[in-house]
Automatic annotation (TrEMBL), chain B:
Pfam families: TctA (PF01970). It comes from Alteromonas confluentis. Residues 18-442 form the DUF112 domain. The keyword Transport does not apply. This is Tripartite tricarboxylate transporter TctA. The chain crosses the membrane at residues 20-46, 53-72, 108-134, 140-158, 203-223, 260-283, 327-346, 358-381, 393-410, 417-446, 473-492. Keywords: Membrane, Transmembrane, Transmembrane helix. The keyword Secreted does not apply.
From TrEMBL, chain C:
Keywords: Membrane, Transmembrane, Transmembrane helix. It comes from the Bacteria. Residues 9-150 form the DUF1468 domain. This is Tricarboxylic transporter. InterPro entries: DUF1468 (IPR009936). The chain crosses the membrane at residues 6-24, 45-65, 85-114, 126-152. It holds the Pfam family TctB. The keyword RNA-binding does not apply.
Length: 315, 505, 157
């Protein structure tokens, strides 16, 4: 009986020390974008020796809101816990889907970026983005544009943004929502829709296999690794869009901790182990810390607020 | 093609790869048995491990886990009526009644053999026709999927044999209605969320499945104990674990048909093991001669064999769009796609040309995976079935625990647990009033897909319904659906008509 | 009793009516005004179909009642079973509520032991032997092998 109680007690103690040094809070389920990013970062941290132990906690629900609430509530008790998040936190705060915004937590740094891309089938009559614009000028509803998420979410917004930049009514485009990137891809390749708005990393997969052609991307400058991909800006359309992914801490985190994190991740991004993880996933570095990061967030919030009001997604 | 095949066989036969298949199958089976963890979680967890062993070995490991998880899901479906994987829900319709009748061992054996055959036939079809099938993958538009799901819904007819058609319909529509809770996937509006952030994502499949099947079943046994059955099970009366010649003869045609059907459905990116298993179940029930037909829903061997064969064949089929076009057909294949890309491979038409060893070794390893799964799991069956021998108090509470923790592991949200308990109580009440549970789950699963595809078809055609008849494919499936749905209805009404006219005045 | 026959369809009728009311109140985003099919279309269809079928169900059950009469036994539930099930459901609710504060290990142990006890198992040895190993093994597999985080108990930390 005594043995039993002792072992039980030990177990209890052990279970509470299961909190590791670098703990990542993931607002989505395993296998999703946030999850892969967090685990990739953790992997690089451990492989490069910058961290003893990285642990991950999935907490999906409420479009990411649950994890944010959790972070705010127990962040200070939970050791080194950082939450992964990305552009949707801005979007969903604007629509009110999530009752929190980036201001309710402490942005530490953005780590990687993905850009939007527009793709058509290899045998499509649209050869360049300008061709697409020509079609849209005749009738802004003439092209069906698919995306891997609901109306009013990122893929839709990016498409509307690009069309707006051509001086057309982005709010009237025919956006066809699919459940996920994979289904949207199928829709494009089968010929059900004419164009696909998706993330660059996904677009590259399809384009490299020769089945489709990337018409334009939303990066602010040409990407060094892929100089042949035209950015909207280089084509004369003055707009850009970044889907960043970054790390957040609980709201009242002390400044020394923030510095610690920044130093850690600056080091990480220079390691070959990180380069391996990053390239493997087709991500691009975008290391912007605290103040710069917050300025970016604010700018993006403004850009999206304008766009979403115009599109009628928010009042 | 043959020497490329040999390259694949060669790769698959290497010792380390064989080991990976075995490990994958074992781990997958274990994970599949736990309701909350599905193939998706299992594979996502495996990915980091696979980085260090190389692409073909990694894919082999993941394929093993995938199949193992499906089999594990079948096990919990059959033994405790807790289908943790949507693709194994249909297996519980006849598998669980068989287990309750003391034929648990045989049920598991049928599941194992049917799964094996389904997967093997699928692998053969994959080998032979993968490139050509790529075209099939791309042939379905949203409208076609709507019609396909519609045909799937006609499986409800299977649960209305004893004149309980209206009750089955009420449950189906209830399920459809439940699927509308949450944020609308097409337009982002909130529906029936009543300001609860936890309802924004809608109800999870696992929650409803556990509540209506496992929990309500366990609770039902508490409130209406079946003394005789409990005694039987307690005595360890599990029946034989082998299939007799008669059994094989009975299920062979079903297995054959369901495998082909399941494979073809799996090839479509928008439909997978779940739809395949339901349709195979419905098809076999409609095609069954009277002597087998009446057992459907109460322990028909064909009723178990068909979905089991179909879901494995569909899993194999879903590799077609993945490998030939780089299109993932389901959450699981999406993760595998991510893994392939992480290895630096480009799934698509180029994969077969540039990396034939990966392509073919995956295919051959699938065939292997099926064999290994069978070899590993057949001996396990007696031990798995022993679960049922646990004394009732223990077994019941364990089932409750598994269901609760299973749902918790998906979302880590205690609100979900309270909702599940609430639904279980409702389900219990409905069961006491003799409503069938299966149509509810069917409506719930299909409701989501039907709505998305329907609204997408309407969007693409700019508001008109002409997508229904514009393409011959859509029209054909539509006609099939109407026929399948209304013929039994017609028969039912005719029966009632006869009954009324036959009553003497 | 007639109620026993029609209770089911009647409940559904009520549910679908309420569902329908809320379906008509689904807020539509501005751009959806133009569309033929919007967020509320399918819910309305389901509500309509549901009302029709449950209404038919009430009628069918009434006919059945009239044909077969009241010689069916009532639900046939024994009092002690009802007491047991109420306790079991209560236990599940308590377990769900305590899971995060007390942590996985403690709350599961309590749930299992209390559950067994309510279900009739009173032997101390069995109670412990069936619960403790299960909890321990489960916890080990989840946290150590599969790297899945299980609640550690916000109360303690």
């Amino acid at each position: 009986m005594r043995l039993f109680l002792i072992s039980l007690f030990t177990l209890l103690c052990l279970s509470n020390t299961a909190m590791a040094k670098d703990h990542f809070l993931i607002p989505g389920g395993p296998g999703g974008g946030w999850d892969t990013t967090a685990r990739g970062i953790g992997e690089a941290l451990m492989k490069s020796g910058l961290s003893d132990n990285a642990s991950f906690q999935n907490m999906s629900g409420g479009g990411g809101g649950r994890a944010i609430a959790y972070l705010i509530e127990i962040g200070d008790r939970q050791g080194d816990m950082l939450m992964v998040n990305s552009t949707p936190i801005v979007i969903r705060a604007l629509t009110g889907q999530v009752p929190y915004s980036y201001r309710d937590v402490k942005p530490i740094a953005s780590i990687i970026a993905d850009y939007g891309a527009f793709i058509v089938r290899a045998d499509s009559p649209l050869k360049t983005w300008d061709d697409a614009v020509t079609e849209l000028r005749k009738n802004v509803r003439s092209l069906t544009i698919a995306g891997g998420s609901a109306r009013g979410s990122m893929d839709h917004l990016v498409a509307a943004l690009a069309v707006n930049a051509a001086g057309l009514e982005g709010s009237r485009i025919r956006y066809i929502p699919y459940d996920a990137g994979g289904q949207a891809k199928a829709g494009l390749l089968s010929g059900e829709v004419q164009m696909l708005s998706t993330g660059l990393s996904e677009a590259l997969e399809i384009a490299e296999s020769g089945q489709a052609r990337i018409l334009a991307i939303t990066a602010p400058e040409t990407i060094p690794a892929y100089p042949e991909l035209p950015t909207l800006k280089s084509l004369g359309y003055d707009t850009s869009f970044v889907n960043w992914r970054g790390l957040f801490a609980y709201p009242d985190v002390p400044d020394e901790k923030v510095q610690e994190y920044i130093e850690l991740y600056s080091k990480l991004l220079k390691t070959p182990e990180w380069a391996a993880v990053r390239d493997r996933n087709g991500w691009m570095d975008l290391f912007r810390t605290t103040d710069d990061f917050e300025a970016d967030l604010q700018a993006q919030e403004e850009q999206l607020r304008e766009l979403m009001t115009e599109l009628g997604f928010i009042q | 093609m043959f020497d490329a095949l040999m390259v694949g066989v060669d790769a698959a036969f290497q010792w380390n790869n064989l080991m990976y298949v075995v490990v994958g199958c074992l781990v997958g089976t274990f994970i599949g048995m736990l309701p909350g963890l599905g193939p998706i979680t299992a594979i996502a967890l495996m990915i980091p491990i696979t980085y260090s062993i190389g692409p073909s070995s990694g894919m082999i490991l993941m394929a093993g886990v995938y199949y193992g998880a499906i089999f594990g899901g079948s096990t919990s479906s059959i033994l405790i009526n807790a289908p943790g994987v949507a693709g194994t829900v249909a297996s519980s319709f006849d598998g669980y009644p068989m287990a309750r009748k003391g034929m648990a061992g045989k049920a598991l054996a049928i599941a194992a053999w049917s799964s094996f055959t389904g997967g093997t036939i699928g692998a053969v079809m994959l080998m032979v026709a993968a490139p050509t099938l790529a075209e099939v993958s791309l042939s379905f538009y949203s409208g076609d999927y709507v019609m396909l799901m519609f045909v799937g819904l006609t499986a409800i007819a299977a649960f209305s044999s004893n004149g309980e058609f209206l009750k089955a319909m009420m449950m189906t529509i209830f399920g459809l209605a439940l699927s509308t809770i949450g944020i609308d996937p097409s337009s982002g509006t909130e529906r029936f969320t009543f300001g609860q952030p936890d309802l924004l994502d809608g109800l999870s499949f696992l929650l409803i499945a556990m509540a209506t099947f496992a929990l309500s079943e366990a609770l039902m046994n508490v409130i209406k104990p079946d003394k005789q059955k409990d005694e039987d099970m307690g005595k360890g009366n599990l029946g034989s674990f082998k299939l007799t010649k008669g059994d094989v003869k009975e299920i062979a045609p079903s297995v054959g048909r369901s495998s082909v059907l399941g494979f073809l459905i799996g090839v479509l990116p928008g439909a997978g093991a779940t739809i395949a298993s339901f349709m195979a179940y419905a098809a076999e029930r409609n095609l069954a001669p009277a002597k087998y037909k009446k057992d459907f829903g109460e322990g028909a061997k064909r009723g178990l064999a068909a979905p089991e064969a179909a879901n494995n064949a569909a899993c194999t089929g879903s590799f077609v769009p993945l490998l030939t076009l780089g299109i993932p057909g389901s959450g699981t294949t999406a993760i595998m796609l991510g893994a392939l890309i992480a290895y630096g491979l480009q799934p698509g038409p180029l994969l077969m040309q540039d990396n034939p060893d990966v392509f073919w070794s995956v295919i051959v390893s699938m065939y292997f995976g099926n064999i290994v799964l069978l070899i590993l799991n057949l001996p396990l069956i007696p031990y798995l079935a022993k679960v049922l021998v646990l004394p009732k108090p223990l077994l019941t509470i364990f089932i409750l625990f598994f269901s609760l923790i299973g749902v918790y592991l998906v979302s880590f949200n205690t609100f979900d647990l309270f909702m599940m308990i609430g639904f279980a109580c409702i389900a219990l009440l409905l069961r006491l009033l003799t409503f069938p549970m299966a149509p509810l789950l069917l409506g719930f699963i299909l409701g989501d897909m039907i709505e998305r595809n329907f609204r997408r078809a309407m969007l693409i055609s700019d508001g008109s319904m002409n997508w229904l008849w514009e393409r011959p494919l859509t029209l054909t499936i539509f006609i099939i659906a109407i026929v399948v749905l209304f013929v039994p209805l017609f028969g039912f009404m005719k029966g009632r008509l006869n009954k009324t006219t036959a009553t003497p005045d | 009793m007639l109620l026993r026959f029609v209770l089911g369809p009647l409940l559904f009728l009520m549910f679908f009516t309420v569902y329908g009311i809320y379906a008509w109140q689904i807020p539509l985003l501005p751009f959806e005004q133009y569309e033929a099919v919007d967020s509320s279309t399918l819910p309305k269809i389901y509500a309509g179909l549901g009302v029709i079928f449950s209404f038919l169900g009430v009628i069918a059950q009434y006919i059945k009642y009239r044909d077969e009469g009241d010689d069916h036994a009532p639900l046939g539930l024994k009092k002690e079973n009802i007491k047991t099930i109420a306790l079991v459901i209560l236990l599940m609710v308590i377990y769900s509520a305590l899971l995060e504060p007390l942590g996985f290990i403690v709350s599961t142990l309590l749930f299992l032991i209390a559950g067994f006890w309510v279900m009739g198992e009173r032997r101390g040895r069995i109670l412990l032997l069936s619960s403790v190993p299960m909890v321990v093994i489960f916890w080990l597999v989840m946290t150590q092998l599969l790297d899945i985080y299980l609640a550690a108990g916000t109360f303690w930390s």
